[in-house]
Design brief:
The complex is a heterodimer of chains A (325) and B (282). Chain A has 325 residues and is mainly alpha-helical. Chain A folds into two domains: 40 residues, no CATH class; 253 residues, MetI-like (MetI-like fold). Chain A contains 14 helices and two strands. In chain A, a hairpin with a 6-residue loop joins strand 1 and strand 2. The longest helix of chain A is centred in the N-terminal third of the chain and has 33 residues. The radius of gyration of chain A is 24 Å and the shape is globular. Chain B folds into two domains: 61 residues; 170 residues, MetI-like fold, CATH 1.10.3720.10. Helices cover 78% and strands 0% of the residues of chain B. Chain B is built from 14 helices and no strands. Chain B is flat. Classes of the chains: A mainly alpha (325), B mainly alpha (282). At the A-B interface, helix 1, helix 2, helix 4, helix 5 and helix 6 of A face helix 1, helix 2, helix 4, helix 5 and helix 6 of B.
Chain lengths: 325, 282
């Protein structure tokens, strides 16, 4: 009876459905789908808006031949690596700790999530002040443990270079690492996003049925084994979701870098271009130089990169975990 | 036996203490920038720039008045932001409820394909659509108008997805019963589905509101006239205006953050449930 009713329903087509999706698709089509193709079109042109001149792939070739582009790409990768690894690691740690059924669980969760909801502009002004070389809290904290003050957001030197200098070791150029300025922005970004990861991981953990644990514990598994062989594999769909979201988010990061640059009185991407990421590079080309075609080419390249990384994620990680959808 | 039991208990208590210690350190890191921000915003110029003591010697609440007056356009920034965030949120709720309902409860040719197109727009980086949209705004003469700040953001694939997942969980028997009672799709959506979906609606409203309140790059591009600028853009321009007077800057930031903190503390359950709901599948 139930089956026959549902098959009957499946033959029935609701033509009004198109009316229901129309408003959303008009807006999305006009401002989110069509612009993708338009962007590709613009990227094949040069010149001011009303006098575009078709130049084929020249903008792309120019990007690939520009050292700034490669600097931006490498900064983007450093930034992504730093933020993704730390935010996922810390998120997992704190979610797991909270999951142990501590008193005040929801208090902690509320506090951890707070930075995520606040505006990047506001928080970055505060953090720029935390990193202020002369009167910031970061240097005050270093002073109490006997480390000489650092220049943080205005320090173009690589972190490994700085550490090496501390011990009088000269570090080869390719090993200088991301600038301290970029690391400082990454620290701020992790602070801002880790609460989101904690909440998602906790949701994932709570979804794991408790009986499984009891069974494993009866079989004599210790808490490390429980985590390694029970929690971790069962949490992997959640982990995968967070990874995909984090990769997309970190490659698109702009607000943190822009507002930290402004708040530390640096030029866009400063100091010495060491916080120039792909998005900052694109914005600079658009906003400062009005190079619409070139900026679009960078945007298209960035999107392509994100797309490839997401597909790689799905192939490498996604196939090993249960698929998300 | 009792000794072993006692030792176990001791280890258990120590473990708990350690656990709380780590959690408290985490909470400290999450909160200290704000505490410090508020404290510094109440200091004098000399104290604020020296960072000698944590607490201000004189609590200068007048800094807030000073900041409010210095920014000048503060009330206007607030108005712009509130108007922008509220209308964007309403728009998203309307378009997403309708579309989410169609994808969850209606049958029509191309449903799967359209849904995939919808999901794929979530992957498109904001940056790639930025330039074309900026040109589009120019051509429409929407620069320095609310239309540019609001209309492109009144639909959200994320919200449609969120609501669709929620709507799908509503038992189809309810629908069958409603059809027997002569209920149309719209009546069913309005009278039954939406009231049942309050958590998802609130979560999606909160995220849209917040996204709009905190947006920066887009308003920066499409507004030139200071009178049209929302709060975030206004604050960034105040960074240079405030110069070294950091106590005024931090007072201004505190003012701009207070509404969001209030909303968060009253509605935090919905925020967190919303995130959790999207994170774990459907």
């Amino acid at each position: 009876m139930v089956a026959s009713r549902s098959t009957r329903r499946s033959h029935h087509i609701d033509w009004t459905a198109y009316l229901y999706i129309l408003p959303a698709f008009v807006i999305l089509g006009l401002f989110h789908i069509f612009p993708v193709f338009y962007a590709i079109d613009i990227s094949l042109n040069t010149g001011p808006i009303n006098k575009f001149k078709f130049v084929g792939l020249q903008n792309y070739l120019r990007a690939l031949a520009t050292p700034d582009f490669w600097t931006a790409l490498s900064n983007t990768f450093s930034f992504a690596l730093m933020t993704i690894v730390s935010a996922i690691g810390l998120g997992l740690l704190f979610a797991y700790l909270l999951y142990q059924g501590v008193r005040g669980q929801s208090f902690y969760r509320t506090v951890y999530f707070l930075p995520y909801v606040l505006s990047t502009v506001g928080s970055s002004i505060v953090w720029a002040w935390v990193f202020d070389p002369s009167s910031g809290l970061a240097n005050l904290a270093l002073k109490t443990v006997g480390v000489p003050p650092l220049r943080w957001l205005i320090e173009p030197m690589g972190v490994f270079q700085l550490i090496g200098r501390q011990f009088n070791i000269s570090v080869p150029v390719w090993m200088h690492g991301p600038s301290l300025a970029l690391v400082a922005i990454a620290i701020f970004t992790v602070w801002q996003t880790v609460g989101y990861n904690i909440v998602i991981f906790m949701a994932g953990l709570t979804n794991i049925p408790g009986e499984i644990y009891e069974a494993a514990r009866l079989d004599g598994a210790d808490s490390f084994q429980l985590f390694r062989f029970m929690t971790f594999p069962l949490l992997s769909p959640t982990l995968f979701f967070v990874l995909v979201i984090s990769v997309i988010g970190s490659f698109q990061s702009f607000n943190q870098i822009y507002s930290m640059n402004v708040a530390a009185a640096q030029t866009l991407g400063g100091p010495l271009g060491t916080t120039y990421t792909m998005t900052v590079y694109m914005f600079d080309q658009l906003y400062t130089y009005s190079n619409y075609g070139y900026a679009s080419a960078i945007a298209v390249l960035l999107s392509g990169l994100i797309l490839i990384l997401t597909l790689v994620n799905f192939r490498l990680v996604g196939s090993r975990t249960e698929a998300i959808e | 036996m009792t000794v072993a039991f006692r030792r176990d208990r001791l280890i258990h208590i120590l473990k708990r203490l350690l656990l709380h210690l780590v959690l408290l350190i985490g909470a400290f890191f999450a909160l200290f920038p704000f505490i410090w921000m508020v404290l510094t915003s109440l200091k004098s110029y000399i104290e604020a720039s020296a960072a000698q003591s944590l607490l201000p010697t004189n609590w200068l609440f007048s800094n807030y008045l000073q900041a409010w007056n210095q920014v000048g356009l503060f009330p206007r920034y607030f108005e712009n932001t509130i108007f922008m965030a509220v209308t964007t949120t309403l728009g998203v709720l309307i378009t997403s409820s309708l579309a989410g309902y169609a994808f969850a409860c209606m049958r029509f040719p191309g449903r799967e394909a359209l849904f995939i197109i919808l999901l794929s727009t979530m992957m498109v980086p904001f940056e790639v659509t930025l330039i074309p949209n900026f040109i589009l705004m120019r051509d429409l003469h929407w620069i320095d108008r609310y239309e540019a700040l609001i209309i492109p953001w009144t639909a959200s694939a994320f919200s449609i997805f969120l609501l669709r997942q929620f709507f799908k969980a509503i038992p189809s028997e309810l629908f069958d019963a409603a059809v027997l009672d002569g209920c149309t799709h719209f009546q069913f959506l309005w009278n039954i589905v939406l009231p049942l979906s309050k958590p998802a609606l609130i979560a999606s409203a909160l995220f849209t509101f917040l996204g709009s309140w905190n947006s920066l790059m887009w308003p920066l591009l499409v507004t030139n006239n200071p009178v049209m600028r929302p709060l975030q853009v206004g604050i960034t321009s105040f960074i240079t205006d405030a110069g070294t007077e950091v106590q005024y800057l931090l007072a201004a930031v505190t003012i701009s953050i207070i509404p969001v903190i209030l909303i968060y503390f009253f509605l935090q359950r919905w925020f967190i449930e919303g995130v959790a709901r999207v994170g774990i599948r459907g």
